[in-house]
Structure formats: C-alpha cells, structure tokens
Amino acid sequence: MIKSYERESWASRWGFILAAAGSAIGLGNIWRFPYLAGENGGAAFLLIYLVCIILIGYPLMINEMVVGRKTHRNPVGAFRELAPNTPWWLVGSLGVLAGFTILSFYSIVAGWSLAYIYKTVVGALTPGTDFAGMFVGHITSLWEPIIWHAVFMGLTILVVAGGINKGIQRAVQVLMPLLFILLLVLIGRALTLPGAGAGLTFYLAPDFSEITGRTLLSAVGQAFFSLSLGMGAMITYGSYLRDKDEIAGNGAAVVGLDTLIAVMGGFAIFPAVFALGYDPAAGPGLTFITLPAVFAEMSGGVFFGFLFFTLLAIAALTSAISLLEVVVAWLVDQHRWPRVRAAVVLGVVIFLVGLPATLGYNVLSGVTFLGMDLLDTYDFISGNIMLPLGGLLTAIFVGYVWGTKNAQAEANKVAGAFRIGDWWGFLIRYVVPVAIAAIMFFGIYDTIKSFLAG
Ligand code: PHE
Description:
This protein has one domain: Hydantoin permease (Orthogonal Bundle).
C-alpha cells in the first residue's frame, strides 16, 4: 500500500527564482562558457550562444517549468501523468540518467575549485608561478582530486538529504548576490590589466570564419547545460511551485540572470587571458590557470582568490544540488524511498561513476573517445548529446502530445505582466525541434569528421 505524502513547495517567489537560478548558475557560467568561447572563436560563439538562449533556451525553460508545476512530479512521474500508458516516461528516464552522468563529472570539477580554495589559503598563488603546470599537476595527481570529489559529493548529499526548503533557499539568497559582486570586482581588475584590450576584441568582435557545425553544437549544448535544461531539473524544481506562482516572468528572470553571469564570466576571463599571454583555447583549464595568475598579481590576491574559489564552489554546489535532486525526487516520488536514504545511496553511486573521469588524467589516460579524454567524453556525451536530445523530445512531447494549448493554459493560469502567447507554441512546435535536430546532426557529423581527419 503506497502511503500518500506531503510534497514540499518553495516558500516564496524569490525562493524559487534564486533556487532555479542557483541551479542554472554554476560551473557552466564561469568555467565552461569561457573556455568554450575561447575554443570557438570568442565573439562569434557569444553571438550564436545568445541566439540559442532566446530561440531555444527560453521556450524550453517555460516548457519544463509548466510540465513540473502541472504535475507536481519528478520527470518520470510527470511524463507518466501527462501521457499514461505510453512510452513517453522514457524521456524522463533519459533525464534522470543525464543528471546522474553530469553530476558524476561535475563534482570532479567542483572538487578542483575546493582544492584551489585550499591552495590559495596555503599561499600557492605567488607571482611568477607556472599556473598551467600547477593545474596539470593537480588534475593528474591520483588522490587529491578524488578526495575533493568525495568532499564535494558529501556536501551535496547533506543539502539534498535535508529537503527543499531548509538551507537551500536561505543559502542562495545570500550567496548569489555575493557571487555577483565578486565577479564585478574581478572584471574591474581584469579590465585594468595592461594589454586587456586584445581580450575585449577577441570577446566582442566576431570572426565568423571559425564557425563549424561543432561550434553550433557546442553553443546549443552550452545553452542546455548552462540553463539546466533537457534533463528535467526545471521540471523537478517547477514541480515544487505552488499553483499560485506564475511562470513566464520567473522563467525570464532565471534565463536572464544565468546569461548575465555567463557574459560577465567572459569579461572577467578574456582580458586577463590576453593581458597575461595565455592561450584562450586552453580548454577546461582556462579558469583554473588564468584567474590564479590574476590573483597572484593583484594586491589582496589571496583574499580575492579565496573568495572567488569559495563562491565558484558554492555556485557549483547550488547546481549539484539540483542535479542530485532530480534523481532523488524520482526515487522518492516513484519508488517511495525515504529522502535521506535516496540521497546517500545515489550520492555514493554517482561518486563511483565519476571516478573514471578523474582517473582519465592518470591511470586511464590511454582511454579516449573521438580524441577526447574521459572527463571531456562525459561532458560531451551528457552536455552535447543527452541534454539536447532530452530537450528535443520534451519539445515534441509538449508540442504534439500534451499540446501547446494545454501548456499555455497552464502557464497563463496565473499570469503577471508576462504571458505566454501563441509565439511560444510556434517556437516549441517548429523552431526548437528543427533547430536542435539540425544542429545535433551537423555537430556530430563534424565532430566525427574532424576526428577522422586527425
Ligand atoms: N546549469 C549548471 C551550470 O551551469 C549545470 C547543470 C546542468 C545543473 C544540468 C543542472 C542540470 O553549472
């Protein structure tokens, strides 16, 4: 006999916005976005990214929030409820699987930021250090990244085990504004470095000759990753909305805040990269190599470095919480597991699944996929394949199975100044699926082709 149980909800409008923005704003903005832009031509990538956010990201954000608030269920349960006795729940399962995969490597990178907090405090950021060497040394060492990965997963488990309201909401209300202010300070510092102008040119003057199918795929993948879309995180967070909460404006606030922080991340990084003579296409190490160099040069660098890596870790934590929450909500809703048990068991399994991603830098360094190391492979498959696929299928589901009219009615049930019009249905039915399908096709084709060409 299944017992009915109380499902929590967000206590206030801002509680939801900040939690959802906390999910969206994370390593994706400050670590992943700048290095992808650096690898893909800078300004041209930024422009394409912004177009993806408007035409694909925002409509899908609404899509997920509506499905969540309508059903008050985790992704699997939501699809089951809206289309009983059909295989559509598999889309929800794909999301749960994607959350699982993303968190397993996300926690490794978040662990790097924890390690850098430590390094900063013990005085490793001194001028003249070879920061590229320091970063490579860290990620290729065996135990250190594993230990920090464990610490980070432990923190994530702790918060998720505690539930929706206690902790998360209060924490994000203080920490998100703090992150914003600190980013402003860093931008100020980066822009005043001698030689910063070259970085601004790179970031703001587009050169479209660099654009390939893979660039487009990376931009779409990044839009999904950064907005936490395509795996049901926003279905899950939306499921804790009260029926009196509105959707269009809340969704716009989350998308706007996330985009703002990503764009700001680029302003903190590229001027510094060029001023200090680093390669903008350095890949995943970009943030961890250039920012320490900036801190080493600036007065009060230890203090600012400490704050920055702490806030990076916190931004990562508020995202990791949402990743684990999706998987936990599925076990709690569908299989009636106690929340604490679900959080602990899943957290430990995800920790183990993540290990190969760090071992790929040492004992498993011989293992590659299409020329990528293991962490990049986890990232590519979840970010560039699973999330866009999940978004594509969810758009088709709402567009053609549940129906955009039903979704619109649900979204506009409580509508503020902002309403979801027919333009939204048009985007969901035609623009979003066609764009995602085409970009995924060409992106994967290009990735394989350029791999074969060596
Ligand atoms: N959006 C988060 C970030 O930018 C990552 C994330 C992806 C979180 C998918 C939840 C779901 O760091």
